[in-house]
Write a structure and sequence with these properties.
Blueprint: E1 3-8, H1 13-16, E2 24-28, E3 31-32, H2 36-42, E4 47-54, E5 57-64, E6 73-75, H3 113-119, H4 130-139, E7 144-147, H5 153-160, H6 169-177, E8 182-188, H7 195-206, E9 212-219, H8 237-258, E10 263-265, H9 267-273, H10 295-309, E11 318-324, H11 328-341, E12 346-352, H12 369-376, E13 383-387, H13 404-411, E14 415-418, H14 423-431, H15 435-441
Parallel strand pairs: 7-8, 8-9, 9-10, 11-12, 11-13, 13-14
Antiparallel strand pairs: 1-2, 1-6, 2-3, 2-4, 4-5
Helix pairs in contact: 7-8, 8-9, 10-11, 10-14
């Protein structure tokens, strides 16, 4: 294997050695380079011997550099390889529930171990080759994020529509035995992997501690676009309470045995169950924030701490915070706390109903620009605050490609984007009428 170099950074170690675009990187210190994991693993050394091809001519280039200094090589893609697609056909796959006409990248199902290490993506283990498994163990790549869903091999095959899904659970055991740190998620579907099956999964994962650092349970997300897909339903309030009870009880056992809870229900369960959220201490440092576990508790903790120190409110107009229907009541409570200290504060929270995906989708991260515009078109406001997860990573547009500029122009209001787990930033933007965050972004 080898990788073609597409660019060389000016004044870099590679440039000083006259490496050129079009050269092919074959090895570093005698180790074959296939993709970004090999490159990142072998590149940090201070003394490197690069094996390169220029046309048919092979040459060795010796490079000396500071520890972790970049060599200066650029490649066609970040992964230096094609992104790997999912081989499963899960009954609950959210991508299968997208309507047609959205941007093409949203329909790609990735299941790439390299993205797990680099960006925190979750993988199912079903498309790993023996070479990749051995490489992950050899490089001791941690943490690795695994979509387990169930530890029942037969049930896993059925839920993922992949006859190898059960066998791939053996890889989880190999990673644990190798001492890798593993973060897990369970997407729960009522009547499939909840109740007794959930208890089984938690027992099996508990047996892999301390390698299993955390396990998040999240409810299945069901849109209104499920034509031709298996008939599934959401959780009832009582079923949500049962999930919380099971996860909490097993978490207490783990805390007694290992000093860490490790098992965490996502915030959505508490909202669905109409139960109060745990405080921040419940979450052991918030290892599963990206899965919506403890997000609201952290937001409240930071908001209240910042509110105690806040000295003034400079907002002069009416500020509106738009969020999903699930979080809206919680955010309203925060606004009321701020108003109790600063009575002149004019602020409201608007829950955006998800007409695009259906009322069963209640999280802010799946709110579309079209729904936002339609539901706010007659709302009087001087500033609009949004959680950052409403926008794609680049921060420029919503899921339906409505842009930030379009929102501002259509609603005739400045838009302020706030990190969804940063309570201090939310308070600062609220008390300044959106001006604080906009100045920071600019």
């Amino acid at each position: 294997m080898s990788v073609t170099i597409t660019g060389v950074a000016t004044d870099s170690p590679a440039a000083r050695k006259r490496i050129r675009p079009g050269d092919v990187l074959v090895k570093i210190n005698g180790r074959a380079i296939e993709d970004v994991l090999d490159y990142r693993f072998y590149m940090p050394d201070t003394r490197l011997c690069l094996t390169l091809l220029r046309g048919k001519h092979r040459r060795l280039v010796r490079v000396r550099k500071a520890p972790f200094e970049e060599i200066g090589l650029e490649f066609d893609t970040y992964l230096m390889d094609k992104q790997r697609a999912c081989r499963n056909n899960c009954i609950f796959c959210f991508i299968d529930q997208l309507p047609p006409g959205m941007r093409e990248s949203l329909y790609f199902k990735d299941d790439d171990s390299r993205l797990s290490f680099l960006f925190g993506n979750y993988i199912t283990l079903t498309n790993l080759t023996e070479h990749e498994i051995s490489r992950i163990i050899e490089m001791h790549i941690s943490p690795i994020n695994v979509s387990v869903h169930t530890t029942n091999p037969e049930l896993r095959c059925r839920m993922m529509n992949n006859r190898f899904a059960g066998e791939s659970l053996d890889v989880l055991h190999r990673f644990a035995q190798a001492g890798l740190d593993i973060q897990c998620q369970l997407v729960l579907v009522p009547g499939y992997n909840d109740a007794a099956e959930l208890e089984r999964s938690l027992r099996d994962l508990a047996a892999l501690a301390p390698a299993i650092k955390s396990v998040a349970a999240v409810p299945v997300g069901l849109t209104k676009h499920r034509e031709g897909l298996p008939e599934l339903r959401g959780f009832t309030k009582q079923e949500a309470r049962q999930v919380i009870e099971t996860m909490t009880a097993m978490g207490e056992q783990m805390r007694e045995q290992t000093g860490c809870r490790r098992f965490y229900p996502a915030d959505e369960w508490y909202i669905q169950a109409e139960l109060p959220l745990p405080d921040g201490d419940f979450y052991d440092g918030y290892p599963q924030l990206e899965n919506g576990v403890g997000m609201l508790a952290l937001l409240q903790e930071q908001f209240c701490e910042a509110l105690e120190e806040a000295a003034a409110c400079t907002a002069t107009g009416r500020t509106v915070i738009a969020t999903g229907t699930a979080a809206a009541p919680f955010v309203r409570q925060l606004v009321e706390q701020a108003r109790a200290k600063f009575p002149a504060l004019q602020a409201d929270v608007v829950a955006i109903h998800n007409d695009f995906f259906g009322d069963t989708i209640t999280v802010s991260g799946l709110v579309t620009g079209a729904d936002l515009l339609r539901q706010l078109e007659n709302t009087a406001m001087d500033a609009l605050l949004l959680p950052a997860n409403m926008l794609r990573a680049q921060g420029d547009c919503f899921l339906d490609d409505v842009t930030v500029e379009q929102v501002e122009q259509t609603l005739h209001v400045p838009l302020c984007v706030v990190p969804e787990t940063d309570g201090a930033a939310l308070l600062a933007a609220l008390l300044a009428g959106g001006e604080t965050t906009k100045r920071q972004e600019g």
